[in-house]
Design goal:
It holds the Pfam family Cation_efflux. It is found in: Membrane. This is Cobalt-zinc-cadmium efflux system protein. It is a single chain. Helices cover 65% and strands 9% of the residues. By secondary structure, the protein is mainly α. The protein has two domains: 216 residues, Cation efflux protein transmembrane domain (Alpha-lytic protease prodomain-like, Up-down Bundle), CATH 1.20.1510.10; 98 residues, Alpha-Beta Plaits. The protein has a three-stranded mixed β-sheet. Helix 2 packs antiparallel against helix 5, helix 3 packs parallel to helix 5 and helix 5 packs antiparallel against helix 6.
């Protein structure tokens, strides 16, 4: 299986590497921008006594670490497959995306807690310096967002990196709004209130990222693939194919999709031609870059072709049986 996978990966590795290396540079540039300004914003938050600035600086600190981790994930993904890591290191990107989601979730909860404490006893905030620092932060975050936005947004790792920068961007907008209100009215509670608003937005986006990354880590069927539709399409377009069963679909990182299936062929059908046609159809029409196909002419070696249906593996099945790989 490992050898087969490496052979199959060779067909699409060149294009994936080109996009991946570009994303890698984008993430590193964004990490440098974020890390550089994070220090200035933290000092500014302490000087002005602004939670909005301190919260954004704390978020930027974790963002710098998360973007660096995302860069390392892209770096690891470029390594070739080994005998012990037969799928290569591409799934590290999914693991990092999940970890980033958890980090964002924790940060948002901390901001809510700190905001509640400050709302009960609002400290004085220096509005003018806060406005200047928050505006500079917004410029830096917009630059970081534009850098990352041009990358591959099908990649969960890139989406996790973008999410961090978007959270920073929203934090800067909230800090600017809070500074303007404080300068105009002197009402300091606006600072923690807007911090909570940003935290709630971040929580919802982080939850979606974590849920999608967890789905892939559990080897769930990608949302873009429909098991029944793929089976019907193959049966209608591959000559000599009687039916397909034991179909399992999963993805390494949200963009590199895999499949295993059993193909029952008509008597006298050319097995090699049928397998080639199935793999070509899966790649061209369904975006499945690597498939392992087991051919059959009569009985299934694992039992009846519908056997999987009686064990909970319906068309909505999201689990891949480990023993098949």
């Amino acid at each position: 299986m490992a050898h087969s996978h490496k052979a199959g990966e060779a067909a699409h590795d060149h294009g994936a590497h080109g996009h991946g290396s570009t994303d890698k540079r984008r993430v590193m540039l964004a990490a440098c921008l974020t890390g550089g300004f994070m220090i200035a914003e933290a000092l500014g938050g302490i000087f002005t006594n602004s939670l909005a600035l301190l919260a954004d600086a704390g978020h930027m600190l974790t963002d710098t670490l998360a973007l660096s981790l995302a860069w390392y994930a892209f770096h690891l993904a470029e390594r070739p497959a080994t005998s012990r890591m037969s799928y290569g290191f591409g799934r590290v990107k999914t693991l990092v995306a999940y970890t980033n989601g958890i980090a964002i979730f924790i940060i948002a909860l901390w901001i809510v807690y700190e905001a509640w404490q400050r709302f009960l006893e609002p400290p004085p905030v220096l509005g003018a310096p806060m406005l200047v620092i928050a505006t500079l932060g917004l410029v830096v975050n917009i630059a970081g967002f534009l850098i990352l936005h041009g990358g591959d947004r099908e990649s969960l790792n890139m989406r996790g990196a973008i999410l961090h920068v978007v959270g920073d961007l929203l934090g800067s907008v909230a800090a600017i709004a809070a500074a303007l209100v404080i300068l105009a009215t002197g009402w300091n509670p606006i600072d923690p209130i807007l911090s909570v608003l940003v935290a709630v937005i971040i929580l919802s986006t982080a939850w979606r990222l974590m849920r999608e990354a967890a789905h892939l880590l559990l080897e769930g069927t990608p949302q873009t693939l429909d098991r029944e539709a793929i089976g019907a399409d193959l049966k209608a377009n591959v000559a000599g194919l009687h039916d397909v069963h034991h179909v399992h679909l999963w993805s390494l990182d949200g963009s590199n999709h895999m499949a295993t299936l059993h193909a029952r062929l008509d008597k006298g059908a050319d097995a090699h031609a049928a397998v080639s046609a199935i793999k070509t159809r899966l790649a061209s029409e369904h975006g499945v870059q690597h498939a392992t196909v087991e051919t059959e002419f009569d009985r299934c070696a694992d039992g009846d072709g519908d056997h999987d249906e009686h064990h909970g593996h319906s068309g909505r099945d999201v689990a891949k049986q480990t023993h098949q790989h």
